């Protein structure tokens, strides 16, 4: 990392790290994170009603989810670099306004094609919005206990937003219409733009700010191929379409790494991911994304299909996980400076896996929520809190401000790709288990529960892998969490 010239008194006063209202700014950024996270699950609740209303096929229904993930996952690194070079405030505002417009188009959709186009636009603008928001947070809280508290809030929302989306989606679908599961983003975005405009200070990278066109093309094509390939894996792993796109994605990303190592202005500087601790954090983010999305998906199915819960009740049943995260987050933020990041990031996956294994062991067709589900959901929330509170902090620790946007995008990209991989893997194991159970003479609901149990086991196994990674790779000390960064560049 290079050193920067000392800031003048005027520059120092205007730097985001010296923002007198930065806790209000954190509220705006957290609202943004909540909108992006809950949008993934709120639409899932609305899909059955939207399918009937628009006359969608099952394949089109799947594309409503896939096309968002495709645009979001493939464009994240480009969005991060746009934030660094064009300006994080500008990129944040454009992403927020664009996301609101796309949500309005989707909410007013009168055809399948209109809804799919809106979802693609949502993903593209989310790829601008998410890294810009996290980069603003990173440079506004560059070090110390305030940074730990800020990232604890951000992490708690990242972990609990999915469950909030299930509840809000259930309420809106049942008492309004599926259209409002998209239209609800408009007032949220309006509040964020109006409140954020006077609060957010512009910052951007200086020095070499040329865009890496070859790298951009390679990584967008590579990530899109991977996301699409894993989405197709739900229909079969050995299909030519699945294997072809997965292989193409791997080849393109390998070529991308080769190009990035040789260019003077890389889209993703390899120093960002090659650092041992940050690389470990990115792997953990991928595994958490895989387990969380896969696990919550089948937990929702269990509530609605087997226990016959309404959409609202399914959302309420998921809330204890969110409440647990919200309770644990401030406690962890206080003890993190004393214990460091390694301990909670090692213990957290074990507790989360125990919760998923509990669900796999005890869920039944006529099960009791209080005894067979609630303890597992609470353990899952405790484990996720141990991960989410330090994860973003560790993943962005020591990153040069020049690379704040693209480093933030790399974290989001890891979680997004992890979610795609996890959903495809867990769905494949679930389907195989249901088929085996039916062949053995099980009743339909019993076969589904057998499938859900297998899904929870694999989700638990995935997140458990994060424990040894954290133990051996996460080397951020207590001092590292509190020390100031070495580099400050202002735009």
UniProtKB/TrEMBL annotation:
Signal peptide: none annotated. Pfam families: MFS_1. GO terms for molecular function: transmembrane transporter activity. The chain crosses the membrane at residues 23-50, 62-79, 91-109, 121-139, 151-171, 177-199, 211-231, 243-261, 282-306, 312-333, 345-365, 377-396, 417-440, 452-474. It is found in: Cell membrane. Its main location: membrane. CDD domains: MFS_MMR_MDR_like. Residues 25-478 form the Major facilitator superfamily (MFS) profile domain. The keyword Magnesium does not apply. Keywords: Cell membrane, Membrane, Transmembrane, Transmembrane helix, Transport. The keyword Nucleotide-binding does not apply. GO terms for cellular component: plasma membrane. It is a multi-pass membrane protein. PANTHER family: BLR6921 PROTEIN, MAJOR FACILITATOR SUPERFAMILY MULTIDRUG TRANSPORTER MFSC. This is Drug resistance transporter, EmrB/QacA subfamily. It comes from Sanguibacter gelidistatuariae.
């Amino acid at each position: 990392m290079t050193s920067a010239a000392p800031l003048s008194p005027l520059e120092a006063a205007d730097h985001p790290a010296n923002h007198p209202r930065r806790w209000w700014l954190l509220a705006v950024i957290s609202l943004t994170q909540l909108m992006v996270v809950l949008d993934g699950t709120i639409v899932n609740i609305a899909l059955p009603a939207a399918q009937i209303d628009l006359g969608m096929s099952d394949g089109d229904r799947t594309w409503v989810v896939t096309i968002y993930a495709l645009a979001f996952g493939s464009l994240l690194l480009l969005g991060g670099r746009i934030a660094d070079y064009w300006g994080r405030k500008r990129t944040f505002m454009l992403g927020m306004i664009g996301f609101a417009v796309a949500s309005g188009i989707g909410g007013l959709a009168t055809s399948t094609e209109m809804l799919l186009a809106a979802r693609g636009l949502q993903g593209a603008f989310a790829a601008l919005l998410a890294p810009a928001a996290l980069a603003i947070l990173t440079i506004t809280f560059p070090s110390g206990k305030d940074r730990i508290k800020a990232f604890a809030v951000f992490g708690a929302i990242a972990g609990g937003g999915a469950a909030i989306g299930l509840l809000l989606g259930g309420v809106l679908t049942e008492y309004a219409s599926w259209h409002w599961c998209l239209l609800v983003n408009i007032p949220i975005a309006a509040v964020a733009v109006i409140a954020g405009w006077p609060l957010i200070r512009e910052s951007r990278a200086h020095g070499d700010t040329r865009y890496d066109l070859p790298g951009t093309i390679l990584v967008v094509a590579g990530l899109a191929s991977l996301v699409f390939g894993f989405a197709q894996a739900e229909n079969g792993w050995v299909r030519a379409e699945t294997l072809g796109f997965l292989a193409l994605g791997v080849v393109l990303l390998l070529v991308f790494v080769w190009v990035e190592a040789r260019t003077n202005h890389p889209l993703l500087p390899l120093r960002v991911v090659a650092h041992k601790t940050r690389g470990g954090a990115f792997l953990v983010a991928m595994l958490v994304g895989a387990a969380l999305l896969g696990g919550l998906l089948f937990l929702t199915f269990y509530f609605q299909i087997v226990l016959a819960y309404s959409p609202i009740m399914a959302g309420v049943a998921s809330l204890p996980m969110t409440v647990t995260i919200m309770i644990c987050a401030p406690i962890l933020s206080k003890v993190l400076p004393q214990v460091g990041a390694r301990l909670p990031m090692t213990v957290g996956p074990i507790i989360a896996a125990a919760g998923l294994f509990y669900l796999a062991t005890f869920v039944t067709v006529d099960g009791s929520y209080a005894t067979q589900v609630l303890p597992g959901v609470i353990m899952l929330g405790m484990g996720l809190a141990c991960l989410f509170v330090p994860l973003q902090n560790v993943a962005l620790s020591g990153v040069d401000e020049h690379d704040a946007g693209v480093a933030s995008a790399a974290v989001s990209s890891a979680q997004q790709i992890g979610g795609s991989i996890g959903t495809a893997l867990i769905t494949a194991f679930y389907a195989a288990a249901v088929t085996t159970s039916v062949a053995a003479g099980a009743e339909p609901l019993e076969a589904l529960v057998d499938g859900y149990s297998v899904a929870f086991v694999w989700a638990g196994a995935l997140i458990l892998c994060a424990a040894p990674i954290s133990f051996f790779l996460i080397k951020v000390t207590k001092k590292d969490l509190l020390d100031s960064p070495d580099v400050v560049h202002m735009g």
